[in-house]
C-alpha cells in the first residue's frame, strides 16, 4: 500500500510542523512535489492549520496579511480583499489581479486573472502557501505569484467537529465537519459553514455566506486513488463606498461613517456558485499520473459604479493532466514534472442595467448637463448592455529538479500558454463619468485578441550547513490584460517581468527564518490611473523597477512560548512612464508606485501551556506611502494594529476569545488621490470581538 503510506506520512509531517518549528514546513505545491520550504529555491511562506485556528481566521486576507511582501486588506470583513504581492495586483479596481489563487490544485483565478474569493471556506483549509514572484509552473497569466489553499483531505484521519462563534456587530459563525470511513477503501466527509456580520459601523457593509462541501475518496486495488469534491456557495456581500477627506476625518474621530457623498451607494456582489473537482492519482513504476478535472457554474448580481451587472449563465471547464517521473541524473535522484492545462470560461447573455432609482440634480451652468447625485436603491432600470464572452487558456509546463553535486539542488522550469478572448456585445447605453449620467452606447462591438504567455525560472539551493541553505533564482513571466481592461483600452499589450532573487533559509531546533533580496524589472506594466470622477483608466507604463528586502523569523524561547516577526522593505519606482492628465502627458519617471509602503512589519507571540491554556498576540504596522502616481501626497500609514486571542482547550472542548484591532485604531486600509487632486479613503475595520466554542467528536 505504497500510496496510502506516503499520504499518511505527509499529513503527519504537516501536523507536526504546525506545532514544532524544528521541523521544516512542507510545501505541497511549489514544485508540485512535497518539499521542505528550506529546499525550495524561491520565496515561499506556509500558514499552518494551528495559526488559522488560533487567529480564528475566516477570510483569506487575515491569513496572509503578516507575510512580508504581501499587502492584504479589506474594508468589509468579508471575502473582498485588496491583495498585492510585491507590487503585483496594484492595478486591481477591487479583488485580485496578477496573482494566481488555487484550491487543491484547482484555479480559482479565471484565465483573464479575475479571482472569486466567494469559493473559499477557510474553515476547511489546513494550510495556505504563498509563492512570491513570477516563474511558477502553477502560475498561468500571473506575474505576482501563487496562493495555494490546501483543504482537509477526505483521506486524512480527523475527528469530527462542530464550531460555534458569536460576536459584536452581529457576528455569527457556524461550522460543522463530519468525516467517516464508509469501508476499508471508501471515505466521505461533509463540511457546512454559515457566516454573518452586520458591520453597522459603515453603511452598506453587511455580509453573509452559506457553504456546503461533500467529499468522497476511494482507493482502488492497484493503490491508485480518486478524490472528488462537490460544493455549493451562496454569498451576499455589500461593498461600502470610499470616503472623501472630510468624511474620513469624521471616521477617525468617531469610528463610524454614514451618509457618504458618493454617487453610487449600493454596490454589492451576491453570488451562487456550484463547483465539482475530481482528481486521480496512480503510480506506475517511477511515474505518478495526476489528472484533474473541474467544473463550476456561477451567477451574480453585482451593482457597481454606473451600472448593475447581472449574469446567470456562466460555466468554467478545466483539466490539468500532470505526471511526475522519478529518475537519476548526475548520479543523484532527480524528478521531472510535466503536464498540460486547458481551461475555458463561457459567459452567455450577461446583462448590464441602468440604476432605476436615483436623484438628478440640475447642471451648475452651461455647458454642463443634469447629473446623477446619488442612488436610492439597487433596483434595475433600463437594459444598458448585453454580452457573450469566451476566454480560453491552454498550455504546457515542464520542470526538472536535480542535484549536479552533493549539497546543490537545481530547478529548471518553463511554461507556455495561449490566452484568447472572444467577446461580443451590444452597448445600448453607457455611464459617462465626465457628465455623471447615462449616454448613448457604442452599439454592437467585438473583441478578438490572443496573447502568448511564457513563464520560466532557474533556481538553485546550496546547503551551507545542516540547518542553513542559500538560494538564488532568476525568473520571467508575462501578464495579459483582463477583459474589463481590454474593454476600456483594446490596445493594451502584455507586460513582462524579470525577477532576480537571492536568499538564506535556516531551520534549526529553536529558530527558523527566511531572508530574501530581490529586483523585479517590469516592461509595459499595466497600471491603473484615476481620473477626476474616480474612473479607473488602464495603460501600459513604460518600465517599472521593484526592489525589496524581506525577512520572516520565529524563535522558540521554550516549549510553551514562540516569538516571531516579519519585515519588508519595498522600493518600487517608475523607470519610464507618462501619465495622461486631461489631454496632457506628464512624466512620472523615477516616482514611487502609490499605495505600497516602503516599510512594513509585524510581530507575534504565541503561548501554549501544557494545561490547555493558550494565548496569541499579533501586531502589524505599515509605513507611509504615496497616494498617487505624481507623488504629491503621502498617507501616514498605521502602527501596531493588534489582534489578541485567549483560549483554553480541555480534552475535546475548546473555547477562545478573539479580539481584532484591540486598541480600536481608526485608520485607512487604502488612501488614494486622483490626477485632479481628489482624495478617497477606505476605512479599515475598528475593534471586533468574537467568542468561539468548538467540540471534537
TrEMBL record:
It comes from the Bacteria. It is a multi-pass membrane protein. Residues 1-20 form the signal peptide. Transmembrane segments: none annotated. Keywords: Cell outer membrane, Ion transport, Iron, Iron transport, Membrane, Receptor, Signal, TonB box, Transmembrane, Transmembrane beta strand, Transport. Residues 245-662 form the TonB-dependent receptor-like beta-barrel domain. PANTHER family: FERRICHROME IRON RECEPTOR-RELATED, FERRICHROME OUTER MEMBRANE TRANSPORTER_PHAGE RECEPTOR. This is TonB-dependent receptor. It comes from Candidatus Sulfurimonas marisnigri.
Amino acid at each position: 500500500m505504497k500510496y496510502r503510506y506516503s499520504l499518511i506520512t505527509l499529513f503527519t509531517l504537516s501536523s507536526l510542523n504546525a506545532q514544532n518549528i524544528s521541523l521544516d514546513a512542507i510545501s505541497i505545491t511549489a514544485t508540485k512535489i512535497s518539499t521542505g520550504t528550506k529546499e525550495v529555491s524561491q520565496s515561499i511562506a506556509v500558514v499552518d492549520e494551528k495559526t488559522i485556528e488560533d487567529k480564528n481566521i475566516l477570510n483569506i486576507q487575515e491569513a496572509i496579511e503578516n507575510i512580508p511582501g504581501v499587502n492584504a486588506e479589506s474594508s468589509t470583513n468579508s471575502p473582498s480583499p485588496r491583495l498585492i504581492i510585491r507590487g503585483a495586483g496594484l492595478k486591481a479596481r477591487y479583488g485580485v489581479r496578477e496573482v494566481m489563487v488555487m484550491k487543491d490544485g484547482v484555479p480559482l483565478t479565471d484565465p483573464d486573472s479575475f479571482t472569486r474569493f466567494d469559493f473559499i471556506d477557510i474553515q476547511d483549509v489546513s494550510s495556505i502557501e504563498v509563492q512570491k514572484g513570477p516563474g511558477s509552473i502553477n502560475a498561468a497569466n500571473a506575474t505576482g505569484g501563487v496562493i495555494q489553499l490546501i483543504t482537509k483531505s477526505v483521506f486524512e484521519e480527523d475527528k469530527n467537529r462542530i464550531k460555534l462563534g458569536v460576536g459584536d456587530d452581529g457576528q455569527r459563525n457556524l461550522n460543522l465537519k463530519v468525516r467517516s470511513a464508509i469501508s476499508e477503501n471508501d471515505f466521505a466527509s461533509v463540511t457546512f459553514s454559515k457566516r454573518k456580520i452586520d458591520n453597522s459601523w459603515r453603511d452598506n457593509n453587511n455580509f453573509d455566506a452559506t457553504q456546503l462541501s461533500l467529499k468522497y475518496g476511494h482507493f482502488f486495488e492497484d493503490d491508485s486513488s480518486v478524490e472528488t469534491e462537490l460544493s455549493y456557495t451562496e454569498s451576499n456581500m455589500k461593498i461600502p463606498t470610499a470616503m472623501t477627506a472630510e468624511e474620513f476625518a469624521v471616521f477617525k474621530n468617531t469610528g463610524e461613517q454614514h451618509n457618504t457623498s458618493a454617487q453610487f451607494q449600493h454596490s454589492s456582489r451576491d453570488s451562487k456558485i456550484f463547483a465539482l473537482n475530481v482528481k486521480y492519482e496512480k503510480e506506475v513504476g517511477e511515474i505518478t499520473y495526476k489528472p484533474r478535472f473541474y467544473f463550476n457554474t456561477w451567477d451574480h448580481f453585482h451593482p457597481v459604479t454606473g451600472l448593475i451587472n447581472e449574469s446567470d449563465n456562466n460555466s468554467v471547464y478545466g483539466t490539468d493532466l500532470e505526471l511526475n517521473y522519478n529518475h537519476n541524473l548526475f548520479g543523484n535522484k532527480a524528478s521531472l514534472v510535466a503536464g498540460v492545462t486547458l481551461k475555458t470560461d463561457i459567459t452567455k447573455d450577461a446583462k448590464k442595467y441602468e440604476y432605476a432609482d436615483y436623484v438628478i440634480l440640475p447642471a451648475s451652468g452651461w455647458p454642463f448637463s443634469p447629473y446623477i447625485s446619488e442612488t436610492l436603491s439597487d433596483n434595475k432600470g433600463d437594459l444598458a448592455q448585453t454580452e457573450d464572452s469566451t476566454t480560453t487558456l491552454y498550455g504546457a509546463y515542464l520542470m526538472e529538479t536535480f542535484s549536479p553535486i552533493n549539497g546543490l539542488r537545481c530547478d529548471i522550469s518553463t511554461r507556455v500558454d495561449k490566452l484568447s478572448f472572444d467577446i461580443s456585445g451590444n452597448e445600448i447605453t453607457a455611464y459617462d463619468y465626465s457628465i455623471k449620467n447615462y449616454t448613448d452606447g457604442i452599439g454592437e462591438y467585438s473583441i478578438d485578441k490572443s496573447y502568448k504567455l511564457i513563464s520560466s525560472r532557474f533556481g538553485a539551493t546550496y546547503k551551507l550547513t545542516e540547518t542553513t541553505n542559500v538560494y538564488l533564482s532568476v525568473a520571467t513571466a508575462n501578464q495579459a490584460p483582463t477583459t474589463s481592461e481590454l474593454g476600456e483600452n483594446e490596445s493594451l499589450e502584455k507586460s513582462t517581468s524579470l525577477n532576480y532573487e537571492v536568499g538564506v533559509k535556516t531551520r534549526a531546533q529553536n529558530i527558523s527564518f527566511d531572508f530574501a533580496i530581490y529586483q523585479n524589472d517590469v516592461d509595459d506594466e499595466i497600471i491603473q490611473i484615476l481620473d477626476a470622477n474616480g474612473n479607473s483608466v488602464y495603460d501600459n507604463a513604460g518600465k517599472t523597477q521593484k526592489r525589496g528586502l524581506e525577512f520572516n523569523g520565529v524563535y522558540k524561547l521554550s516549549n510553551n512560548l514562540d516569538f516571531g516577526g516579519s519585515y519588508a522593505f519595498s522600493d518600487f519606482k517608475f523607470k519610464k512612464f507618462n501619465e495622461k492628465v486631461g489631454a496632457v502627458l506628464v512624466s512620472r519617471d523615477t516616482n514611487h508606485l502609490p499605495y505600497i509602503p516602503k516599510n512594513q512589519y509585524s510581530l507575534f507571540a504565541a503561548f501554549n501551556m501544557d494545561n490547555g491554556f493558550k494565548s496569541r498576540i499579533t501586531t502589524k504596522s505599515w509605513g507611509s506611502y504615496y497616494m498617487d502616481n505624481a507623488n504629491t501626497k503621502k498617507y501616514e500609514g498605521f502602527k501596531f494594529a493588534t489582534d489578541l486571542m485567549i483560549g483554553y482547550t480541555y480534552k475535546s472542548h475548546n473555547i477562545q476569545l478573539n479580539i481584532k484591532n484591540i486598541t480600536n485604531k481608526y485608520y485607512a486600509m487604502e488612501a488614494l488621490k486622483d490626477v485632479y487632486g481628489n482624495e478617497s479613503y477606505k476605512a479599515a475595520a475598528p475593534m471586533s470581538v468574537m467568542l468561539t466554542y468548538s467540540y471534537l467528536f
